[in-house]
Target: DNA-binding transcriptional MerR regulator
Amino acid sequence: MGRTYRIGQAARKLGLNTSVLRYWETEFPQLQPVRTRKGQRLYTDEHLELLAVIQGLLHEQGMTIEGARRKLERDEQIVAAREAGDEETCASLELEELRRSVASELLAMKRLLEGNGA
Model:
């Protein structure tokens, strides 16, 4: 399994509270740390990478939990399609992701312009 981190260690590495990690476990099905016999959570390096992605989506990109969850699910679908050699599905999913990104950027620009009285 490689290196593991208890919840406090993982939270410190990411600059988050342990309560945030526990909450994200309930919101993101991809995030399922291993539990010891005593019920303590053990996070792997892969979990920390996923947590950093979630943190970036929520805190840096300003996504909602639902939006971040959908983004992670789409990313998983793209990877699965790519691994299966299904280039058509992969291209379709990537195009849809690009469309959503452009629409989001346009909406943000519109709000910015409306907020400035333009």
The longest helix spans residues 87-115. The radius of gyration is 18 Å. The first strand starts at residue 4 and ends at 6.
